């Protein structure tokens, strides 16, 4: 069993948007049967991307997209990508109508957790 690297703890005064992006990761939902997720990368340091994939995989392992824990872990993965200046894309396999409903539910969840 491989160990999962810790989340980045580097402190920086730069906003993530002002720093150059160092890589790209696309996370794809493969269906209701585990493993549910695939990870693809277009560019970036291979080891850096692999470390990020391991952290994301640890958060998503055995979680389908409709699991309530998925939303919480998805937000953590997004923050990790932002801290590490990675472009992160998701393909959750939703139709346009389902995607809008999912985005609305995610916004409601985010509003509730900020209170």
Mean pLDDT: 78
Give the biggest beta sheet: 3 strands, mixed
- Amount of beta strand: 5-15%
* Uncertain stretches: 1-14
Helix content range of the residues, please? Answer: 40-55%
- SSE order, as H and E? EEHHEH
Count of separate DSSP helical elements = 3
Give the strand order of the largest sheet, numbering strands 1, 2, ... along the chain: 2-1-3
Number of domains: 1
Number of beta-strand segments: 3
Quick one: overall form?
globular
Key attributes of the depicted protein:
115 residues; alpha+beta; three-stranded mixed β-sheet; 3 strands; 43% helix; disordered N terminus
Structure description:
It is a single chain. The radius of gyration is 15 Å and the shape is globular. With 115 residues, the chain is of the alpha+beta class. Strands 2-1-3 form a 3-stranded mixed β-sheet, with helices on one face. α1 (46-60) packs antiparallel against α2 (68-83). The protein has one domain. Mean pLDDT is 78; it is low at 1-14. The chain contains 3 helices and 3 strands.
How are the SSEs ordered, and which strands pair?
Blueprint: E1 23-29, E2 37-40, H1 46-60, H2 68-83, E3 86-91, H3 96-114
Helix pairs in contact: 1-2
């Amino acid at each position: 069993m491989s160990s999962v690297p810790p989340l980045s703890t580097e402190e920086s005064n730069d906003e993530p948007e002002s720093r150059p992006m160092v890589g790209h990761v696309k996370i794809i939902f493969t269906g209701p049967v585990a493993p549910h997720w695939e990870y693809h990368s277009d560019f970036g340091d291979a080891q850096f991307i692999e470390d990020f994939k391991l952290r994301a995989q640890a958060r998503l392992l055995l979680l389908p997209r409709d699991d309530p824990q998925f939303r919480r872990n998805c937000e953590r993965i997004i923050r990790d990508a932002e801290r590490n200046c990675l472009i992160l894309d998701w393909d959750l396999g939703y139709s346009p109508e389902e995607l809008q409903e999912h985005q609305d539910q995610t916004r409601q969840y985010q509003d509730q957790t900020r209170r």
